[in-house]
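Appendix B. Raw example, untouched.
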Amino acid sequence: MINVGNEMKVLIVNTSDIIGGAAKAAYRLHRALLSQNINSQMLVQDKSGDDYTVLSEANKIKKYINKLRPLIDSIPVRFYKNNGKTLFSPSWLGFNNIIKRINEINPDIVHVHWVAGGMMRIEDIAKINAPIVWSLHDMWAFTGGCHYDEFCANFKNDCLECKVLSSVNCRLSSKGLSRRKYIYNKIRHLRIVPTSYWIKNQATDGFAAKYIDRVLYNPLDTSLFKKFPKQAARNFFNIGTDKKVILFGSIGVSSDKRKGFEKLLSALSLLKTRSFVLLIVGSTKPKDDRLSEFNTLYIPALRDEISLPLIYNVADVTVTPSLQETFGQISSESLACETPVVGFFATGTADIVDHKINGYLAKPFDVTDLANGIDWVLNNNNYNDLCKNAREKVIREFSSDIVAKKYIELYQEIINDAK
C-alpha cells in the first residue's frame, strides 16, 4: 500500500459514474486509488450508483437539467443532415458550476476522463486551478469533435473536411480543433495519458503531441474477474458443454460499425467449427436479425461486476473485431476470466492480446484470418495453456493495484513539478 495517504488529494472527473466504457474505467481507477490509501473522490454529471465517494448535483432541478445537457450539446450536429452514427460532441454548452465545484474541492490533481455530453466546454478545462491529467478513452481530446475519426486523419491538419459529419467545409469541426489548440496552450500543467499504444500513436500525429505522457492501461479488479466452473456458468444459461461458445459484446449489435459487427458476420460464415453458440452481450434481439442462421443467444447490457465475469466464463472465446478501439476492456475482462480473445492486430487490442499466447491477432481487417483465429483458439490442443496465459497477462499488467501505483507515481511527479 502506498504511504502518501492524505498528503495527496485526487479528483476523478467523468460525465457518468458507471454508464459507458470510460465511466467504468474511471470508477475502477477511483476505487483502486482508495484501496491504496489515496484521498480520491469522483465528480460526475450523471450519477447512477450509490457510492458516497462519487459526487454529483444534489438539487433535483439541476439533476434534471444535467440529463438534458447531452441533448442540448448535440444541437449543432443536427444541422449536418448526413452525419453518421459516430459520436461527435461540439462541447459548446456552458452555464454550469462544474469548474467552480472542482476548484472548491481544491484537489492536488484533477484527473479528467470522458467529459463530453455537455459536461464541460474545452474552454472550461483551462479554468481548473490544479494540475490536470487527462486519460484518453477515445480521440475526442485531439480532434475537432469526433470521438473516432473513421480513418480520415484530418485532425492532423485543420479538420475542415469532416468525414463524421459528411461535410467538406465544416466550420464546426474546424473551429473545434482550433479551440483545442488555443486552450491547451493556456493550461499550465497538462499531461495527456494514452490508455494504449494505438491511441498514443494517433495522438502524437496531431497537435497534442507535446502534451502526451506515458501509456497507462485501464485497471481491472482481478478478485472479481476470475475463472468460475464452466459447467455451472453454462447451466445458468442452459447451454450444454458439447457446444463451443463464441462471445461478442457491443451495445446495439450492429449500431456501431466501429465495433466490427460486419467483420464478425463475415468471419462466422467462414468458420470450420460449425457447432457453436453465439453469445451477444449488450443487446436484445433486433427486428432485423442478421444472425438468424446461427444459434444465437442475446443478453441485454450488464453493468454490474458480478454478472459480467459469469458471462465470460460461459464462453470459449471472445471476439473483439473492432476497427478503432482505444483500449477494449472486454478483452482484458475476458482474459482475466481465462477466456482467450481473438481480434485484429490493430487498435488497443494489440496491447492486450499476445498473438498465439493468450489469443489470436488477425491481420487488419482480414475476415478470413479472423475466422482462422477463432478456429485456431477453439480447436487448440493447448487451449488450457492459452487460458492460463490469459489471466497471467492481466495480473501482470492490468490489475488494479499495479495500475493504481503507476498513476500515483505520475501524480506525485506532476505535483513535484508544479511546486
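End of appendix B.
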